[in-house]
Design goal:
- The chain is an alpha+beta fold and 307 residues long.
- The chain folds into 2 domains: 36 residues, no CATH class; 253 residues, 3-Layer(aba) Sandwich (Extracellular Endonuclease, Chain A).
- Helix content is 23%, strand content 27%.
- It has 8 helices and 19 strands.
- The protein has a 9-stranded mixed β-sheet, sandwiched between helices. It has a two-stranded antiparallel sheet with strand order 1-2.
- A hairpin with a 5-residue loop joins strand 16 and strand 17.
- The chain is globular, with a radius of gyration of 24 Å.
Length: 307
């Protein structure tokens, strides 16, 4: 019995040692088996995801002090933690299946939206985000000839502090297909301008934007979620878009506004206020929780009505 156990132990030891030395040999032979990600050499090893689910933003300098911009933008909580990408001036969660964002978060002040002659939007190009795995990227070719605009979720006009900031809003990870005439260039643009105007009244404006895929009752009496996809990468065309905004007043009071707009031509005379909805309806439809670090009872107003 003792000899049998000793023999089994020797067998296991030899297998372990063989695996160890094989691994050492592979490690030496694969030293040059690297991939460049954001300018950094990353070894292609089993179990190491080259295209991870979270990327961190670099700290930025504002008025001489270094701040963690991500924690500043996400001060009141993340709606979810799926495939988070942080850029210099906004943070998003990317929907790899639909090739559009789940949500995009921005923190705006007067300085962020003020005119800056050093920033030129016309120099920006729509660019695929190479931090996303090639299987899940959208491409400019997906939008070409589709009839849809590449609609910004983080608006370019919200990020005027630096040219780099506005350029990053042109990553396709920040885009979703939007009807152009009557929506992206008109009604949606009007809502974006409204959010920027809030910085004239409030010290800080926190804005979360994203797509929705809402059900519709059809002729057979049943409800269906139907949406178009475009391009070789089947980029989803949302049925609606939302914005949920929290504004910090100089007094410290917090006001919330929530909007849902259908992705279709909207008459010019329609006021932005016509699209206000209770924020919980967006949360239920999107499967997200907005500003969950703020209890709703702590809000001063929601959609202009006192809580």
């Amino acid at each position: 019995m003792f000899r049998k156990k000793l023999f089994q132990f020797a067998q296991l030891s030899s297998v372990g040692l063989a695996g160890y030395y094989a691994g050492q040999f592979r490690a030496k032979s694969d030293k040059n088996d690297t991939i460049l990600i954001d300018g950094k050499a990353v070894r292609n090893m089993p179990g190491l995801p080259i295209f991870g689910t979270v990327s961190a933003a670099t700290p930025y300098t504002d008025s001489g002090s270094t701040k963690d911009r991500v924690s500043q933008i996400m001060k009141y909580g993340f709606p979810s933690l799926d495939n988070v990408r942080s850029y210099d001036d906004f943070v998003l969660s990317y929907d790899r299946r639909n090739r559009v964002p789940n949500w995009v978060f921005e923190h705006l002040t007067k300085a962020h939206v003020a005119r800056n002659d050093q920033v030129d939007r016309s120099k920006c190009d729509f660019t695929p985000d190479e931090s996303i795995h090639p299987f899940f990227r959208s491409q400019n070719s997906d939008y070409k000839g589709s009839g849809f605009d590449r609609g910004h979720m983080a608006a370019a006009g919200n990020h005027r502090i630096a040219q780099r900031h506005v350029e990053q809003t042109f990553y396709l990870t920040n885009m979703a297909p939007q009807v152009g005439e009557g929506f992206n260039r008109h009604a949606w643009n009007k809502l974006e301008k409204h959010v920027r105007k809030l910085t004239k009244v409030y010290d800080n404006v926190y804005c979360c934007t994203g797509p929705l895929y809402l059900p519709r009752r059809e002729a057979d009496g049943k409800s269906y979620v139907r949406y178009q996809v475009i391009g070789a990468n089947t980029v989803a065309v949302p049925t609606h878009f939302y914005k949920v905004v929290v504004c910090e007043a100089p007094s410290g009071a917090l006001d919330m506004e929530a909007y849902v707009m259908p992705n279709q031509r909207i008459p010019d005379e329609t006021p932005v206020s016509a699209f206000m909805v209770p924020p919980e309806t967006i949360e239920r439809a999107a499967g997200l929780l907005f500003f969950d670090k703020i209890h709703r009872s702590k809000l001063h107003t929601i959609n202009g009505k006192k809580v």
